[in-house]
Amino acid sequence: MQYLLHHAIDATAGRTPDQDAIRCMDDALTYAELADQSDQLAHVLIENGVRRGDRVGLYLDKGLRASVAIYGILKAGAAYVPLDPAAPVERLRLILRDCGIRHLVSESSKRDILVQLGALGVALDACIGVEPTDGLPGHAVPWGELTSAPTGSPAVGATEQDLAYI
């Protein structure tokens, strides 16, 4: 049987759901919350066209959402590509194009940079975690909409041979 990183999170959530999995400043997520939120993100990514082996950009500051995003991307069968929030727009554009990124997980606080990327010709299918607005380089799905997505890991058939991150 395959045992991937996100399987360990789900297994721990089954054993100790109320134990803190991640703490960041005064915020925390339990293992159950991490498992459920990453499942929901995985389902939304898949609904927006992410397939096993795709590369998904991760444009978030360090924190709880970044952890949810990493596990959600892995559960969708994709590889995550972390993008430095302090990087210049041209550097981000280069990475997005070089890695073939068509989906991005971010947040509305990064909207201005995302709009600049769109103006520079970056084409994305979807920006997950961003409120819809003109000028974004793709369909926007805000974080709040993820709560209506199903929980339970999607069956994507990922193996230990699949790329996890770049």
Describe the protein in words:
- The protein is of the alpha/beta class and 166 residues long.
- Helix content is 36%, strand content 16%.
- It has five helices and seven strands, in the order H-E-E-H-E-H-E-H-E-H-E-E.
- Strands 4-3-5-6-7 form a five-stranded parallel sheet, with helices on one face. A two-stranded antiparallel sheet has the order 1-2.
- Helix 5 (111-119) links the parallel strand 5 (103-105) and strand 6 (126-128).
- It starts with a helix and ends in a 25-residue tail after the last strand.
- The model has no long low-confidence stretch (mean pLDDT 91).
Brief synopsis:
The protein contains 5 helices and 7 strands; from the N terminus they run H-E-E-H-E-H-E-H-E-H-E-E.
Q: How many beta strands in the DSSP annotation?
A: 7
How much helix is in the residues?
Answer: 25-40%
Number of helices: 5
In terms of structural class, how would the helical and strand content be classed?
alpha/beta
The rounded Rg comes to 15 Å
- Mean pLDDT equals 91
Order of helices and strands: HEEHEHEHEHEE
Distance between the termini: 25 Å
Bin the strand percentage: 15-25%
Stretches where pLDDT falls below 50 for ≥5 residues? none
Shape: globular
Report the biggest beta sheet as strand number plus sense, adding barrel if it closes: 5 strands, parallel
- In the sheet with the most strands, the strands line up as 4-3-5-6-7
